[in-house]
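>> received
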Amino acid sequence: MVSGAIGLGLVTLSLAIWVVLVGFWGRFWWADQRLDAAAPALAPAVDQGKNSPSVWAIIPARNEADVLPQTLGSLLRQDYPGVYAIVLVDDQSTDGTATVARQVAQQANQTERLTVIAGEPLAPGWTGKLWAMDQGARYAQGQPHPPDYLLFSDADIEHSPSNLRQLVAKAEAEALDLTSLMVLLRCESHWEKLLIPAFVFFFQLLYPFPWVNDPARSTAAAAGGCILLRRQALERIGGLTILRNALIDDCSLAAAVKRSQPPKATLPSPSQEEKAASPHPPIWLGLTTTTHSLRPYPTLGSIWDMVARTAYTQLHYSPWLLIGTVLGMGLVYLVPPIELIWGIATEQGLVAILAGLTWLLMALAYGPTLRLYRCSPLLGFALPLIGLLYTLMTLDSAWRHWRGQGGAWKGRVYPTEI
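>> returned
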């Protein structure tokens, strides 16, 4: 009788949590913040001539020779009508990344658009990617005519031909300081289909995109693979130096931009004045189906390492947050299937019904993200198993931190976030 009451209480609490998440947690599960859908109406905001804002793309690249023909080639083929240049920072590569980059530009007859910088040795207190980004940004800002925008792109991102034009159009139309895309991640292997859409789903749960995009809320996030940043906003926050030791650099950058306030005296246009009147400078984070990552995660181990690299960092290295996360993941994802089985086995009809409803609600909430990745909706019912795997990855992330291994990437190990 006591165990029945406990089971009923747990499944009722789990159901209540899912009702709150689905009904009141920023529409995180709708997956409706899309650049693709908005782009056609926004395109006229970008002039088809010399008045378009200038953009420099910054690509930090460490041992990316195999993907550059596709990814760098896609940036060289952008249909953007304004001044546009690319800086690739070769971050101590050993695979001929710089040579391949120059060859790609030469084959595209775009050698004048590309500048390749030999990256300096990693400076103390910096993570490698941010150090490379900072070098590229300082180079662009130091030009006689510094760009209006900086496009930070990972070296493994293949952009659609109109991606830059659409990003700038949206930024200009809505006076955004930061415009970012959660690009479509590779989802081809069995493990990728099982775990990659869930990675995006959990990210949206942590940072509901409609809240990120609401200047009235402090919620801030970005996806590091594709970030368009207004140069004035970068200067206002003091450059990338303030993020130098951040392993989760994209969300840290978004938070810094959204916390900052532009001087009102320098805002000439009505849209800028409206922006200044908002509690926070507007930023935007959305999804896309046309720009995607080529980074493969063909095995469980590769996805495990990707998550474990920063999961404990997300918890600010707090054992108490780790314990809370483990208990919360168990309550939200594991209780429904366990209680469903237990309710059926012990003929506790109410427990079984509530558990089944909770599991169904969970699967339905996962549906839009699965559709985004063209995966079977039946995978929604695998979310408890997926949640368990991600919980184990988080525990492993903490274990790596406690052993001093921290975040490892491209042959470098970052023991902690200072």
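>> DSSP finds 16 helices and ten strands in the chain.
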